[in-house]
Amino acid sequence: MMAERTGPLQLLDLDSLLSEDERAVRDLVRRIADDTIRPYVADWFAGGDPPVRELARQLGTAGLLGMRLSGYGCAGASAVAYGLTCMELEAADSGVRSLASVQGSLAMYAIWRYGSEEQKQEWLPRMAAGEVIGCFGLTEPDHGSDPGSMTTRARRDGADWVLTGDKMWITNAPVADVAVIWARTDQGIRGFLVPLPTPGVTVSRISDKLSLRASATGEIVLDDVRLPQEALLPGAEGLKAALSCLNEARYGIVWGALGAARDCLETTIEYAVTREQFGRPIAGFQLTQAKLADMTVELDKGFLLALHLGRLADTGRLRPEMVSVGKLNNVREALAIARECRAILGANGISGAYPVMRHAVNLESVLTYEGTSEIHTLVIGQRLTGLSAFT
Q: Exposure pattern of 240-260 as b/e (b: 16+ CB <10 Å)?
């Protein structure tokens, strides 16, 4: 006999913790994802060539790019509304959420927080509209978790700056119009705005990815790239400035990973109640129900954690180590959920007809970027002990 059913995030009536406006934003983004992303994303993933510019314009029209920022055509939304946006975008695909994260939380945020008024006026309105795409060049081929050891250099030459170096695994790079590039100078690490058509800049698409294939990823090589003084982000001084941008992006991931996990779990529940083995739906077996219950508990706990961090952010009390707790826990649990869901679907779990395997391989990348699990573990450990274990 079939009893009344409830969704994973409805089990604890978590909607009651959101305001009417927050639910409205979530529902809007869910409709956009259902109409413009879900019907096509499996093909984008298979082909590895998503329509990034078209997606950016669609997200910009809806006010979803740089939505936490104020002014310059940005929505000035709350941290919770932005988090819910990330959750709904990543429920469709991690690569699409990455597009919005890098555009808004990295490239636009760097300009908004550290740029001159002229730089803000020049770039932010067009980026908020999705007319201009940005990327964020911090990671290098040999310096991922240790960006402070970057080898990209910027030297003065008269009134200009000359940049030389290599940035790797840069989301949006193959289609970007402008890059925020971090480089070492004689005065320390600084941030620069580099229009990608600038002579000396070479951008190569990374095409042999097995994950995040619905996202454009590239390498940026800078060979004596000459920039005027106006390209320097005047407030971007030191590695701390670059890491503050990463903290914004990591916050979005705390929510985004929940979207991927939720989509896996909802797909798996629907599959399990209709898939029959031994004369009954597999959802009716105790082992299957135990797995579904455990995954739902972790999903709901992750939502409560993300919401708590969002409320702290909206009152100015969110600290970097708190974001590390969220990123470490929610991505780790989301990946575990995706893997377990894949197993419940059996052979169908590896089929492109279902989103579960796509989410699972995407989350392998999400586990690594914006700080590996090991890095976030050490951030938390340092806060607990007062001792740094990084060196």
A: ebbebbbbbbbbbbbbbbbbb
Q: Quote the crossing angle between the two packed helices 79-92 and 20-36, to the nearest 10°.
A: 20
Scanning 74-145, the segments in alpha helix (DSSP H) are 79-92, 94-101, 109-114, 117-128
What CATH number did the domain enclosing 97 receive?
1.10.540.10
SS3 290: helix
Instruction: Yes or no: say if 137 and 220 are a contact pair by the CB < 8 Å rule.
Output: yes
Cα separation, 70 vs 75, whole angstroms:
6
Rounded to a whole number of angstroms, the distance between the first and last alpha carbons of the chain is: 60
Residue 316 three-state SS = coil
**Final residue belonging to a domain, choices 238, 264, 291:** 238
Looking up tokens 């869910």 gives 30
User: Quick check: is 113 in a domain?
Assistant: yes
CATH number at residue 197: 2.40.110.10
370 part of the active site: yes
Per residue in 70-124, pLDDT (tens digit) is 999 999 999 999 999 999 999 999 999 999 999 999 999 999 999 999 999 999 9
The domain of 309 spans 240-385
Tens of pLDDT, residues 11-33:
999 999 999 999 999 999 999 99
Please check whether residue 154 lies inside any domain of the structure.
yes
What is the pTM assigned to this prediction? 0.96
Q: Is residue 3 part of a domain?
A: no
Residue keyed to tokens 């951030």:
379
Annotated catalytic residue within 90, 140, 219, 370: 370
Whether 2 maps to a domain, the answer reads no
